[in-house]
Each structure stands twice: as structure tokens, then as C-alpha cells.
């Protein structure tokens, strides 16, 4: 890849641009807010403005509900030969792109699984995606060249390309990203009821579990509402777990005798053990291998 355009110079878009510039790719930066684009350019992420000729690949780095409109506009303007996006939802942009009449042969959905709780170009860095999965969701319409360019983008950012179906991706990120963010936010919201003397006792554990809550509320409203069903389904099960634990704790306070206490402590212990077991299933992060000149073709799933 010799040239690219990044549409949307927030945290993710600017981080991608910085990674590409570090690999010698010419990058054009486009943003509805010129100041944001200039801030990214000042970091060395590329040059501000539309290229005179189509670039190899355009990266649409805007919130999920704006992907289709941005794709349609920039395909009409012949910004690039192929297009990808980095939205954390994949079914909605694909469906809306089809409804908007976008050229689906030159578009492949993408989602780099890396980020930070901060937002904006000043929070970006070119190593944000090192060793992280980068999901690609080609449709039955996507041409091979578009998939190859999107995969090359991921490899240039030293990420690990993973091909998934749109719905499979959305269910996966509901579990691994969207629900954790919402749970972190809900817990952090309870701190509004805390007394200053109580909050003064907070340690690193509370900082860790509420770190995600510092993310942009507007962006996360867009993300969660775009994946509403999958998130809601998981929250129902989570709420049932909370109810069981709360019930066990209440009954422990009024348990009559060791047998009753054992029943309720066993329920509490079971919840904690399941937590230990679940956390152990999270894969250990490993560095991505360096990109190689020759690449085997990526299989494009049909009927997605």
C-alpha cells in the first residue's frame, strides 16, 4: 500500500494514520472539523486534505451510524480504490451501506480491537494496535482486492487480521467490549452517591474497574444503541446473576443456623469461582508477527 486516506481523525483514525506514516505510506487526513485534522497532522499523522488522485484505501473512522453516509459520499467523490471502516459494530453499517446504494464490492467492514478511554487525536499513538486482533467482515459482494488491502492495513498497524461474519462479530464485541463498558459506567455512576470520606479510601482496584467509564458518553451511546439487542440479551443474564448474589447476601444476614448460612455462602462462593474461571479464559495478549511480502488469500465468507 502506497497511499491511504483517513476520514475521521479521532483516537482510532489518527492512531492508524500514525502507524501507516511510520511504514512509509502517504496519508491524507479528512475530518469535518479542520482543527481536529490539523491537530492530527501536527503529530505527524499525514497531510490535511483530499488527494488529487484516488488513494489505494480509505479508512472511514467515524461513529457507526455515520459510516454509510461517509462511505457513500467518498465513493461518489472517488476518494479511493477500496474502502474499509473501523466501527465497533458491523451489521448496521453493512445494512445501511446497502440501503444507501454504496458500491459493496469495494467495501469491507473492519474493526481494530484496540483503544483507550481517552478520545481525540492527542490521545493517539502508532502502536495502539500492536498484537491486537483486527476483525474484517467482508460480505458476499466484496472483491478480493478490497479484502487484501484491508488486511494489509491491519498488518501495517502490526495487528492480527481475523475474518468473521457481521453478526458473529457483533455478538462477540457485545460480550467482550460493550457490556464491560456499560457495567463499568454503571458502577462508576454509583460513586456519585459516595461521601468524600468514603471515596478517599478508593484504591487501584476501583480505578481499574471504572477506567472504561471515562470514555466519551456520546460515542458510547452510538455504539451501544447500534448493538442494542446483543447488549440487552447479555445484560438480562448479568442482572439475573446480580439478583442471585444480592438475595444470598440478604439471606446471610438473617440465616438461622450453620446449615442455612452454608447454603447462602455456597451461592456466593459459586459466583466468585465462576468469575475466576471466566477471567482465566481471556487469551493472553501476544505480539503480532511482522507483515511478510507474500500473503495467502483471505477466504471471503459467503451469504454474510
Structure description:
This protein is an alpha/beta fold. It has 2 domains: 162 residues, NAD(P)-binding Rossmann-like Domain (Rossmann fold, 3-Layer(aba) Sandwich), CATH 3.40.50; 56 residues, no CATH class. Helix content is 49%, strand content 13%. It is built from 11 helices and 8 strands. Strands 3-2-1-4-5-6-7-8 form an 8-stranded mixed sheet, sandwiched between helices. The radius of gyration is 22 Å and the shape is elongated. The relative contact order is 0.12.
- Unreliable stretches: 287-304
- Percentage of residues in DSSP E strands: 5-15%
Task: Report the CATH topology name of the largest domain.
Answer: Rossmann fold
- The helix fraction, in percent, is 40-55%
Query: C-alpha Rg, in Å?
Result: 22 Å
Mean pLDDT: 92
In the CATH hierarchy, the architecture of the largest domain is: 3-Layer(aba) Sandwich
Let me know the largest β-sheet. 8 strands, mixed
Amino acid at each position: 500500500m502506497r497511499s491511504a486516506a483517513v476520514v475521521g481523525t479521532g483516537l482510532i483514525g489518527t492512531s492508524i494514520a500514525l502507524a501507516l506514516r511510520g511504514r512509509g505510506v502517504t496519508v491524507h487526513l479528512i475530518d469535518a472539523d479542520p482543527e481536529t485534522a490539523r491537530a492530527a497532522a501536527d503529530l505527524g499523522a499525514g497531510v490535511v486534505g483530499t488527494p488529487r488522485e484516488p488513494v489505494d484505501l480509505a479508512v472511514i473512522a467515524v461513529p457507526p451510524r455515520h459510516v454509510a453516509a461517509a462511505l457513500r459520499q467518498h465513493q461518489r467523490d472517488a476518494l479511493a480504490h477500496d474502502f474499509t471502516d473501523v466501527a465497533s459494530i458491523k451489521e448496521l453499517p453493512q445494512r445501511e451501506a446497502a440501503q444507501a446504494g454504496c458500491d459493496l464490492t469495494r467495501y469491507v467492514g473492519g474493526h481494530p480491537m484496540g483503544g483507550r478511554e481517552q478520545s481525540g487525536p492527542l490521545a493517539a499513538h502508532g502502536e495502539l494496535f500492536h498484537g491486537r486482533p483486527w476483525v474484517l467482515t467482508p460480505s458476499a459482494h466484496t472483491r478480493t482486492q478490497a479484502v487484501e488491502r484491508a488486511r494489509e492495513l491491519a498488518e501495517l498497524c502490526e495487528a492480527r487480521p481475523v475474518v468473521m461474519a457481521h453478526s458473529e462479530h457483533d455478538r462477540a464485541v457485545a460480550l467482550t467490549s460493550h457490556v464491560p463498558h456499560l457495567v463499568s459506567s454503571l458502577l462508576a455512576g454509583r460513586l456519585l452517591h459516595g461521601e468524600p470520606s468514603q471515596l478517599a479510601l478508593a484504591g487501584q482496584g476501583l480505578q481499574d474497574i471504572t477506567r472504561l467509564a471515562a470514555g466519551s458518553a456520546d460515542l458510547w451511546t452510538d455504539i451501544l444503541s447500534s448493538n442494542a439487542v446483543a447488549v440487552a440479551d447479555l445484560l438480562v443474564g448479568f442482572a439475573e446473576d446480580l439478583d442471585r448474589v444480592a438475595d444470598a447476601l440478604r439471606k446471610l444476614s438473617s440465616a438461622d443456623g450453620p446449615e442455612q448460612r452454608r447454603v447462602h455462602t455456597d451461592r456466593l462462593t459459586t459466583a466468585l469461582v465462576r468469575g475466576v474461571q471466566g477471567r482465566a479464559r481471556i487469551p493472553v495478549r501476544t505480539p503480532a508477527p511482522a507483515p511478510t511480502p507474500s500473503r495467502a488469500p483471505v477466504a471471503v465468507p459467503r451469504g454474510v
